[in-house]
Fold Homoserine kinase.
Amino acid sequence: MKENELRIFCPATIANVSCGFDVLGAALDSVGDEMVVRKVPEKGIKITKLVGQDLPMETNQNVAGVAGLALLAESGSNEGFEIEIYKKIKAGSGIGSSAASSTGAVWAINDLLGRPFSTLELVKFAMEGERLASGVAHADNVAPALFGGFTLVRSYEPLDVIPIHSPSELYATVIHPQIEVRTSDSRKILKTHINLADGIKQWGNLGGLVAGLYTEDYDLIGRSLVDHIVEPIRSILIPGFDKIKSVSKEAGALGSGISGSGPSIFAFSKGEATAQKVGEAMKQVYQKIGIDYDVHVSKINSQGIKILQ
Amino acid sequence: MKENELRIFCPATIANVSCGFDVLGAALDSVGDEMVVRKVPEKGIKITKLVGQDLPMETNQNVAGVAGLALLAESGSNEGFEIEIYKKIKAGSGIGSSAASSTGAVWAINDLLGRPFSTLELVKFAMEGERLASGVAHADNVAPALFGGFTLVRSYEPLDVIPIHSPSELYATVIHPQIEVRTSDSRKILKTHINLADGIKQWGNLGGLVAGLYTEDYDLIGRSLVDHIVEPIRSILIPGFDKIKSVSKEAGALGSGISGSGPSIFAFSKGEATAQKVGEAMKQVYQKIGIDYDVHVSKINSQGIKILQ
């Protein structure tokens, strides 16, 4: 590898994670994009390749470009960078496609500049990519992509991201039914008010999930993966959702839910073998309904973005 | 001590704990009641002494009596017990006065019967005492009194209590302004619906608090002790509340909030010296207003109920 160039793996991420709506996220290990970021003499940022998805390449229309520019503006640097993006995550699938690109850009540029910024600062720059992608500068995908493992976005003002311990045998299975659900649509159908009683259940479950992650209590993780607020509403947009949940449970999954704003559905399992079995069971549901799908099985990635040789 | 008799310490408890409304609680170490529970030939339960508070002594009107009877009914035992209660926690103060009595009864009776029941089962019996005291069989005081430390009541159906790690240097300061706020009143003024946006902040903070407790990150514990839902409403019933909060913070407290349904106010600090300073600052507020008060400073009790020699 050349000195002024980085080839990196940018992980897919599961946001919301059931009871953790808008605050929790987790990074995947074997699902993600690749990017090459290269220092060049010409100032600014140029997207020189974008393979695998039909997305805009103009710097200020591309999430990696916008996130990178936010970093450069703050750094006062006069350097220039070329970015090649090899998309393997499908846009709109609900596993953080835009977050992978924007975090990859800021992580690599920061590294090539000699790391002037902290990981938390990188989250802020990457959030500008999310603002471009969805209209909302949310952090629940970019935070786990940058920190790795599970992250809790405790607060936005000021931004406070808490990395949460990830049990070593925790695996995710994600199935992506090839239907389109726009983030803006799936946000629109949410209610602005909730029952206090449902809220209490939700923060009880989130507390249980965080405790289960720290104590590596897989059973507690499973019991806590219940969403009383968002899943009952959003799952209506996802065909076969209830069936996918029930077959996952029967195949041994700890629990399951909507990944991000959907349409992907995730399940957590203890151990890879169970996660694979869950994937097989999920597949059969969509094969019967006749919906195309992708299935991913991955360990939770504790590192975040990784340099590839 | 006689073979068929136990003298025990029954801890005061802080329920709700700011962002943990209706799910979180913590046990105190140096504030609590004493009880003597004695096996006697006569079947059933008799409250033979009740010192320090004016409370009913008829078994089925007394929280310790009712909780003990719930245990005996389930056990099918023909044994009988006498209970002496030495109240040091004031009823209605918001630090689990009824929970101390009901948990003490079931813990000691279970011990004298050879421990047929698990701690979780004891929580269920003690909840019957809470039902008598407040009309609601809540567990957020009785769970920490029985398990010790911090506990999360993740769910009621089925009952799921999660003991949460307590950092070793965590101290509580509690001030009890001697005004009456009935639990039923302070529950009545709560709204049945909340903003989703406030809910998200609340479960973000609860997740942060649980993470802070496990990682012994005192600063994170402090940042997470924010209640967007209940405190803004209930604090109206507590004179000087905002001032108590601000002087606590200035004196070095990590954070503060309403203990249970009030009127007591708690603050957490790192180390006993700071917790004492916080107590002094709190006192001055009520001295100025002219309200009588009690102040307690205590380590978080990791053991729960303790046998006294």
In short: Residues 67 and 125 of chain B are 5 Å apart (CA to CA). The domain at 5-164 of chain B is CATH 3.30.230.10 (Ribosomal Protein S5; domain 2). Chain B has a mean pLDDT of 95. Chain B has ten helices and twelve strands.
